[in-house]
Amino acid sequence: MLRSRSSRQTRRKHALRMTSVVSSHRIMKLTLYAPAKINLVLEVLGKRNDYHRVSSIVQSIDLCDVLDFQLHEAVCLECDAPSLERDNLVTRAAALLRESMKCRLGARIELRKRIPWGVGLGGGSSDAAATLLALNELWRLELPLSELVHIASKLGSDVPFFIHKGTALVEGVGEKVTPLPSLSSTWFVLLMPPLPRIPGKTKEMYNRLDTTYFTEGQFVQAALSSLRQGKAIAPGLMFNVFDKVAFEFFPGLNEYRKTLEQAGAPRVYLAGSGPCLFTFFSEEKQAKVISLNLIGQGLECYVTSPFPGG
To answer: Could you tell me the pTM of the whole model?
Structure first.
């Protein structure tokens, strides 16, 4: 499938959309867009107490799930994806926020899944962050972003980033997020290889990393220098610690890398822990040419652009 959106549409999606307000000015309903992400650079610096210390430059993109929230006496979730487990990050985020704030309010949540699951795009983590942001508004908790990030860190290493979104440096075990200058004039082509989706895949791939995979942050530092000068990240600096592991973990993944290259991709990168693959261009026209080639081969792909932070 081809998915392409203009920057104006992206900005419109970025904000909370209040769909109903009663006379007391309490928000009754709102809709949030939960964007996917890709890691432009992903390094593991070391491991301590079973936690891997990462240094990563992460970019949110405008391939989004959509979540509708409405005040309710309890927390209940409806989703158009039948594969979603009952114990999922949305309900866990709502439960954790209620418990943390001793809140008795509830919400009816409708989740419309658009981000493919289990492919390295962080869809579940983004949904969790959107839930924290929405319920903070809906329940009038008035928590600052720093407190939401703290709560988010208890749900998973990718969730704090999605509180901020945009372009960001992510460090530690994901809890330290530093906003960066936004990417400009960038169009990503995402390819979803038709490979089995494996629950617990990311944890297993981290377990396969030994000390020979650890780096010292040199790729991130070089990329940061480019971004802060308003330059694009050079292709040679886009490093992913999982690259070798993923191509061993997913038999057949290399064939789809070749497919993307043969379609005209100058370079092919792994999204997160995969198996999603991506390439990027400075012009939308170039991205669409590649995507139409892939669609013509019966493959699932998306054309996306950066989703702003803030």
So the answer is: 0.91
